[in-house]
Amino acid sequence: METITWHDFEKVELRAGTILEVSDFPEARKPAYKLKVDFGPLGIKQSSAQITKHYTKEELLGRQIMGVVNFPKKQIANFMSEFLVTGFADENGDIVLAAIDKPVPNGSKLI
Questions:
Q1: pTM of the predicted model, to two decimals?
Q2: Is residue 105 part of a domain?
Q3: pLDDT tens for residues 16-35?
Q4: 59 lies in which domain range?
Q5: What 3-state DSSP class applies to 37?
Q6: Residue 39 has what pLDDT?
Q7: Mean pLDDT estimate for the chain
Q8: Does residue 106 fall inside a structural domain?
């Protein structure tokens, strides 16, 4: 494992946001949802997430998640992703979201 400096870590903008909209993403190669997330002062951003195995659209609405908001935009099929949703692969390779266990202001930075 490569080590990084504190300065390197500070460059990663891991921010809290609340999911406002969830829709199917049939054009994606692997099953995924399209998400619209409110990052407070950073605005509303969209991303796709391969989280369909563990989460329904209904249970994702209103949930706070962590996202990396300072990667360049990335085109996925016909959709432009503006941030990276964070999570961990389970024993089957399905993604489990990284969790915020108490509400924090949208846009809060992980420190």
A1: 0.94
A2: no
A3: 999 999 999 999 999 999 99
A4: 11-97
A5: strand
A6: 98
A7: 97
A8: no
The answer to whether residue 23 is domain-embedded is: yes
Record the tokens describing residue 10, joined without a space. 């500070």
| Token digits of residue 28 | 């994606």
Q: Helix, strand, or coil here: 54? A: coil
CATH number where 37 lies: 2.40.50.140
* Cα–Cα distance, 49 to 47 (Å, whole number): 7
Residue 72, judged by CB atoms within 10 A of its CB (0-12, 13-18, 19+), counts as exposed
Supply angle C-alpha 33, 83, 71, rounded to 5: 145
Contact between 69 and 39 (Cβ < 8 Å):
yes
pLDDT in the model for residue 79: 95
Residue 29 resides in a domain = yes
Domain total in the chain: 1
Q: CA of 56: how far to CAs of 4, 48, 61, 76, 102, in Å?
A: 36, 14, 9, 21, 21
Answer left, alpha or beta for residue 21, where phi above 0 means left and psi between -120 and 50 means alpha.
Answer: beta
